[in-house]
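Lab manual, section 2.4: Encoding a predicted structure.

Procedure: take the sequence of the chain (372 residues), apply the prediction step described in section 2.3, and record the output as structure tokens. A sample record is shown.
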Amino acid sequence: MSNSNIDFEDLRPYRDEEIPAAMQRIAANNLLPQLAGFVYPGSSVEDVRRLLGTITNVYDFQHTVMKAFNEQIISRTIDKFTFSGFEKLDPERSYVFISNHRDIVLDSALFQYALYLENIPSTEITFGSNLMASQLLIDIGRSNKMFKVVRGGSLMELYKNSLHLSDYIRYTVTQKKNSVWIAQRNGRTKNGIDKTDPGVINMFSLSYRKDLIRSLADIHIIPMTISYQWEPCDLLKAKELYCSKDKPYVKSPGEDLNSIVTGLTQQKGDVHISIGNELTEDILQHLEAPNKNDFFKNVASEIDKQINSNYHYMDNNYIASDISHGNNHYETHYTLESHDRFIAYLDQKLSSIGSEKEEIRKLLLLIYAGLL
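Recorded output:
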């Protein structure tokens, strides 16, 4: 279908002409001193205000503010940042990158930085409506090519929002010629097991139901994997798993913001991003099934296979698996020093936990050993 007449004002990122006003609002925000201190630690707040006043388009914002932001994250909290598979990407083409999801901000932010280093255009990025908690977050997000994904609502509202999102993604990739980054499921992986929701694949197809294979082939889906040595927000995730084992988990006010800050500031050790292979028309034809739901499950399984096979297992993953199983099956993948360091890390993380300490310890181990 043609998307040219559909109104995407409620979803889209800022256009270049909207950037100066957004920069003025960010410059006037009372949180600017904290933000400036993190992104530009050697500059005064007034210097950063002046810098924001010189930014007049999205490209400048990404290559001035977001580039500096990523460089601070890497220099302060990452020991080694590596990536592979980017040679498969054609800078002239547009893709939908579907990624495992371990951190609210970092997964997509570090991917954009890797694209920058490889001279490949940045992507648009999905941005949950639940995260748009303030004008400041909206201004930073939409200036950074983020577009809104509406969360919640009735079944009818969910369908309408999914169709609208599907239309927008197809329009962005096929007509605007911009790539898109989206997570493989709603919400971060909590247990270390990355699994694609077939509903995401269904959503992609809603905007072109005439031919399901064509609908997915046209948007050039590429699985992407991000691997962290030290899992962002690991203790917060373990606590959430513990609290949700008997009843649905309800987030407290400000919890998402706390997760964002924790993810940004926590040490992450080594981080690696892997680019998989495009789900071409030939591959999608091999995944064809008698009914659409089985087809969506087959596509999700193919994405899972690529995401998991491209995961870079690190010493902590192997150590957690051996501790969980009470053996030394993976002992050639780590040293005694790294084993002791991991144990000390767990003890430090759990030092403030009460009677549920052992259960949360098991969940922390699962987060690190989940894929093995």
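Check your result against the sample. The chain is about 50% helix and 10% strand.
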